[in-house]
Amino acid sequence: MHIQPVKQLKGTLKVPGDKSISHRSIMFGALAKGTTTVEGFLTGEDCMSTIACFRQMGILIEQAQDKVTIQGKGLYGLTKPDSVLDVGNSGTTMRLMSGILSGQAFEVEITGDASIRKRPMDRIIRPLTSMNANIRSLSGNGLAPLLIKPSILKPINYVSPVASAQVKSSILLANLYTGSTSTVNEPTLSRNHSEIMLNHFGAKIEIKGSLVTSYPIKELFANHVVVPSDISSAAFFMVAGLICPNSDLLLKDVGVNPTRDGIIHVLKNMNGSIEIINERTVNGEPIADLHIKSSKLIGTVVEGDIIPTLIDEIPVIAVAAAYAEGRTTIKDASELKVKETNRIDTMVCELKKMNIHIEATKDGMVIVGGNRIQGAQVKSYDDHRVAMSLAIAALGATGNTTIENSSCIAISYPNFESDLSALTLH
Ligand code: S3P
């Protein structure tokens, strides 16, 4: 992808559907009795991997653009796939599906691409094994491929060492097969889309602070799901609108669930002009329109309980910090090391190439804004959010930027480049 500096960004944009919610709509729809319909579905490669896996397990799924229909067969309706399930690049698919597969009466192997085969799966293997799941890493090193065999699951009271919605959701899904009550207690609350959507499908899940309790149910029931626009995709345009001069953007129907909206708080702390308008709730998920205007940003500190609510947005927050006056410190974010890439290392390395003053720390990074940012030849490492963050960094640079291996953007935002050009004046 080639990016030229821009003079301003103007217009209205509805970014594609939320990735986390799109995955869950397919999974819960498949396990529910009846026909689930989804609108606003994200057709990025990750969510298409989830569709492919459930089709392989005998679920009829029709998809036309962002509309999906799933013929759910109930909790016990999945059938043995005739080959290995491939989740591609998607950690959410692998970790959530492992919870579901632990409760099935058939043996199954799951794998994914080179990145997914390096990401820690012991974080779900451990609690699922405590639930009596027969799940193991085939190479014995806590990594995928995973082999899951039938077993009788039992409930768990799990104190999670990490605030991870993927871990929490995997346990909640496995608990549907225990006929009993399980709890998950997280160090801080991670995104709660599973809890909200499972309840809409007839589950009985209670949230008290960072303690989630899943009570026994007999069935899930089909529903209609409206997927909000993904705040993690909107984040690129929030930062773009703030850092480019004379900009004025309206981002429509963005999911602003409090477990996901940390970036709005941080950018506002940085003196960013973000107005939240037209707030409403759809399927239990808060959504709003965001009005963004160019702003003179200042440095900030990002740390503590807010981190899980903005974990996927840290790469683009680092870009905002590079355009801000003063120092920004990001702490308590070691989880960034186990994302699609080690996002501390990849962002620090590539932003340095653009003359940005940025250093890695043990659990985050420090950025000192104010350097003249230069266009450069940079790499995505096949990480979609790294690629899009670099594209935003390039908008206010002197000179042009080339991003190598930018096709990975299709994992979460297939039309990113055309959406960006539609708003751009050079
Ligand atoms: C996700 C949870 C987060 C997030 C990922 C999507 C989900 O991961 O980074 O992009 O859909 O549950 P962790 O659970 O590893 O924090």
Q: What would you say this structure looks like, in words?
A:
Strands 17-18-16-2-25 form a 5-stranded mixed β-sheet. Strands 3, 4, 5, 14 and 15 form a 5-stranded mixed β-sheet that branches. A 4-stranded mixed β-sheet has the order 6-7-9-8. The protein is built from 12 helices and 25 strands. It has helices spanning 19-31, 45-56, 91-101, 122-130, 165-175, 193-200, 231-243, 262-269, 314-322, 343-353, 384-395, 416-423, and strands at 2-3, 8-13, 32-39, 60-64, 67-73, 85-86, 108-111, 134-137, 146-149, 157-159, 182-185, 204-208, 211-215, 220-221, 224-226, 248-255, 273-282, 285-293, 301-302, 327-330, 357-361, 364-368, 377-379, 401-404, 424-425. The chain has 426 residues and is α/β, with parallel strands linked by helices. A hairpin with a 2-residue loop joins strand 21 and strand 22 (364-368). The longest helix is centred in the N-terminal third of the chain and has 13 residues, at 19-31. It has 2 domains: 2-16 and 228-425, UDP-n-acetylglucosamine1-carboxyvinyl-transferase, Chain (Alpha-beta prism); 19-226, UDP-n-acetylglucosamine1-carboxyvinyl-transferase, Chain (Alpha-beta prism). The model has no long low-confidence stretch (mean pLDDT 98). The site of shikimate-3-phosphate has 11 residues, from helix 5.
